[in-house]
Inverse folding.
C-alpha cells in the first residue's frame, strides 16, 4: 500500500502541530520579550495625537502598564488591571464614542 | 452520417486527445516545480481563481466581532503578529526577508494596504467587511501548497481576531508605533495576559 509511506509524515506533522501549539502560548514568548520603547512616544508629534484613535489608546495602555510598575501602589495597579480584563466588554463601548 | 453524430464524434475525440495529452504532460515531469520558477500565466490564473473563489465562499458566513477597534485587541494581536508572522509578512521598515525572497507564492507584505502588496485579489482596495473575513479565514485555515500555515490549531478565534484587528492598522503604523504595540511588556505577564 502506497498510503503507508505517508504515515510517518502525518505522524511528524501531528507532532509538529502539537509542539508548536504549546510554543504559541503567549507566556512562552516572554523569555525573549522586548520592552515597549515608551520613550519614543515623547518624540512623536503631539499635535497629531488623537486620543480617540485606538492605536493611540493602545500605546497609552502599553506605556501606562509600564509606569504602574514603578509605582509604590503596585497592588492598586494590579487590581485595576484585572478589573479591566473582566469588564472589557463595557470598556469597548465606552471607547467607541 | 448526420451532422449531429459527426459533431459528437469529434467532440469525444477532442476530449480524449486533451485527456491523453494532459496525462502525458503530467507524467513527463516537464512542469517546473521549483519555487524559484514562477508559474506560467495560465497556471497562475487558475490557482489564483481557485484560491480566491474558495476563500470567498468559505468566509462569507463569518461574523465580525463588534469590538475590532478595541485597543486591547491591538496589543494582543500586535504581540502575536510580531512573534509569529513578521518573519514572512514583514514589519514597518523591513521590505524583505529570506521568506519573502524564497517562498512562492511570496508572502504579501502586510505593512502595505491590500491594493499595494503585490498581487491581485478581491476586495483589495479598502479594508471592507469581505476583506476582513477573508483575512480571518486565511489566518485560521491557512492556504494549501503555499507557505501560509493554518493557525486555527493552537489558537482560538479570539486570538485570531486580535491579529485581524491589528492587521487593519498595520499599514499606517510607523516603526516606533509598531515597536510599542507589539512589545510584550513584562508587566502584562504578571497581570496574567
Ligand atoms: Cu493580498
Amino acid at each position: 500500500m502506497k498510503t503507508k509511506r505517508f504515515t510517518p509524515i502525518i505522524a511528524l506533522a501531528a507532532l509538529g502541530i502539537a509542539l508548536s501549539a504549546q510554543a504559541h502560548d503567549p507566556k512562552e514568548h516572554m523569555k525573549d520579550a522586548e520592552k515597549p520603547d515608551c520613550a519614543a512616544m515623547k518624540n512623536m508629534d503631539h499635535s497629531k495625537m488623537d486620543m480617540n484613535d485606538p492605536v493611540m489608546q493602545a500605546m497609552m495602555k502599553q506605556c501606562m502598564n509600564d509606569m504602574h510598575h514603578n509605582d509604590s501602589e503596585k497592588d492598586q495597579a494590579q487590581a485595576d488591571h484585572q478589573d479591566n480584563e473582566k469588564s472589557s466588554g463595557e470598556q469597548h463601548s465606552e471607547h467607541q464614542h | 452520417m448526420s451532422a449531429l453524430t459527426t459533431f459528437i464524434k469529434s467532440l469525444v475525440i477532442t476530449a480524449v486527445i486533451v485527456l491523453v495529452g494532459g496525462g502525458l504532460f503530467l507524467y513527463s515531469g516537464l512542469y517546473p516545480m521549483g519555487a524559484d520558477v514562477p508559474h506560467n500565466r495560465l497556471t497562475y490564473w487558475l490557482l489564483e481563481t481557485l484560491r480566491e473563489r474558495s476563500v470567498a465562499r468559505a468566509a462569507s458566513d463569518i461574523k465580525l466581532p463588534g469590538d475590532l477597534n478595541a485597543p486591547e485587541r491591538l496589543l494582543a494581536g500586535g504581540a502575536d503578529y510580531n512573534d509569529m508572522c513578521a518573519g514572512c509578512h514583514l514589519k514597518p521598515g523591513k521590505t524583505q526577508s529570506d521568506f519573502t525572497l524564497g517562498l512562492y507564492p511570496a508572502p504579501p507584505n502586510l505593512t502595505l494596504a491590500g491594493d499595494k502588496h503585490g498581487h491581485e485579489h478581491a476586495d483589495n482596495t479598502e479594508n471592507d467587511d469581505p476583506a476582513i473575513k477573508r483575512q480571518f479565514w486565511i489566518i485560521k485555515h491557512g492556504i494549501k501548497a503555499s507557505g501560509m500555515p493554518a493557525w486555527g490549531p493552537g489558537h482560538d478565534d479570539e486570538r485570531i481576531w486580535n491579529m485581524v484587528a491589528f492587521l487593519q492598522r498595520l499599514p499606517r503604523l510607523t516603526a516606533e508605533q509598531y515597536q510599542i504595540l507589539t512589545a510584550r511588556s513584562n508587566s502584562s505577564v504578571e497581570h496574567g495576559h
User: Anything to note?
Assistant: The first helix of chain B runs from residue 3 to 28.
